[in-house]
Design brief:
This protein has 10 helices and no strands. The chain is an all-alpha fold. It has a domain of 66 residues. Helix 1 packs antiparallel against helix 2, helix 4 packs parallel to helix 7 and helix 7 runs parallel beside helix 10.
Length: 177
């Protein structure tokens, strides 16, 4: 049975990203999310019966291809403590495109994938710096190791995002970067 989660909360982003990090190619990370979401239904989490939360990575990919709900955009902006304009810039969305996406209620596949990329970086930075506030600050501040660009600015491509992840790994392991 398919189950969509309407407007992923910050908490659910953390769960998704944690599960993706630890079981990205294995089955079961979505069912773990379903269990956590079900446990939090009293906190206002709305789970509908037509959801895409299946027990395989294929379902997540299908949801990204279909396009995430615009509420995911707002949830990530809140998690990053950034404005919608800032997040739109990091995702490569113009104001006009963002306005159209808000009207339609859905991001396109490319913006959905970039949104997941930024969320993945926020989750990794939070893990490394052990504080969301420190992670937010680091992601937005220019880094010498990234040619003076902020990590979120540098991550506008998948290769750039991987470099940011490598930099986080070096920082985590005490390698001067």
């Amino acid at each position: 049975m398919r189950r969509w989660i309407k407007n992923l909360s910050i908490f659910k982003w953390r769960v998704i990203l944690h599960r993706m990090k630890h079981e990205i190619h294995g089955p079961g990370y979505i069912s773990g999310l379903r269990e956590v979401v079900g446990a939090r239904s009293d906190a206002g989490v709305m789970v509908r019966e037509d959801s895409v939360l299946e027990d395989s990575p294929t379902a997540v990919i299908a949801q990204i291809r279909h396009g995430l709900a615009i509420g995911e955009f707002a949830s990530l902006a809140s998690w990053l403590a950034s404005t919608e304009d800032e997040l739109a810039r990091w995702l490569g969305l113009s104001r006009a495109t963002l306005h159209r996406r808000k009207k339609s209620g859905q991001l396109d596949a490319a913006a959905s994938e970039r949104l997941i990329r930024v969320a993945r970086l926020m989750a990794r930075a939070t893990e490394v710096f052990e504080s969301e506030e420190s992670a937010r600050s680091w992601l937005k501040r220019p880094a010498l190791a990234l040619a003076g660009e902020s990590p979120l600015g540098f991550a506008d491509t998948e290769i750039g995002a991987r470099e940011v992840e490598y930099l986080l790994g070096r920082l985590e392991n005490g390698v001067f970067s």
